[in-house]
Each structure stands twice: as C-alpha cells, then as structure tokens.
Write a structure and sequence with these properties.
Structural class: mainly alpha
Largest sheet: 2 strands, antiparallel
Radius of gyration: 18 Å
Number of strands: 2
Number of helices: 5
Distance between the termini: 32 Å
Shape: elongated
Strand order of the largest sheet: 1-2
Strand content: 5-15%
Length: 140
C-alpha cells in the first residue's frame, strides 16, 4: 500500500479550505501520484515510505494537498479508478438561445489528466524542492 503524505488537517492548514467529504480518497490518490512522480528521486523514508527529512515531507505534503484540491475542484471521484464519467457541456439550445463552451473538449482532457497525473502546480512544488526530476542516477 502506498504511503499517504497528508491529512485533512494538512489540507485545511495549507489554505485549501474545508476538506471535501471524499478527502481521504483524494489524498490517497494524490499521494500515489506524488509517489509515482518521485520514484526516481533519492530521499530517506521511514518504514511506511514517508520521507523523514522535514523539508522533503513538507514538499510531499503540499504537493499532495495541491493535487487533492485540484481533483476536488474538478469533481474527480478517486473511487472511479481515474475514469471520468461526467460530461462537459459543449452546446446547449433553449427557446432559441444558444450557449456553447469553446473549451469543452480541453476541459474534459484536463480533467481526465488530473485524475491520472500531477497537475502543473503540484509538480512545480516538488520540482522547487528538488524532486520529480527526470535526471538519471549513475553509480560506479
């Protein structure tokens, strides 16, 4: 089981507001994405896989909360396994009036991506702390 890097209290204290009812699922999914983004990075962990260095843990915690907030804002349900099932309105007509959302396809693409990969701000938080890099480690 993957470690969970943040709690609902962390979510609130970092300024993301009142945690949604699905916060535990969101934080678990966000932690998986953070773990995946940092799998090539080197850092010390405890037996549960949580970073032991304070600044590293803070970066992981903030990136996790940022990702969870993005998923909550986009109405992503982690229980769906990353599959987005809602529809984005592309066009609507009512009594002769018409509304079209020009970015409907883009919005759905971004929503789908946020369910399976880190949003840019969460990735930036990790990269600013020196993690989520693409560098290759060479030994010997």
């Amino acid at each position: 089981m993957s470690p969970v890097y943040a709690t609902s209290a962390d979510y609130a204290s970092l300024g993301y507001g009142t945690p949604p009812t699905s916060i535990d699922l969101l934080l678990r999914q966000a932690s998986r994405l953070v773990a995946r983004a940092t799998m090539a990075d080197r850092y010390d962990t405890d037996v549960d896989g949580v970073p032991t260095d304070g600044p590293t843990l803070e970066a992981f915690k903030e990136a996790t909360c940022c990702q969870a907030a993005a998923m909550a804002a986009l109405n992503i349900d982690p229980a769906s396994g990353g599959v987005t099932t809602t529809r984005t309105v592309n066009s609507k007509t009512l009594d002769g009036a018409s509304v079209t959302y020009a970015n409907a396809v883009d919005a759905e693409t971004q929503r789908s991506a946020a369910a399976t990969q880190l949003v840019p701000e969460a990735r930036a938080i990790l990269q600013d702390a020196g993690y989520a890099t693409t560098r290759v480690w060479t030994y010997g």
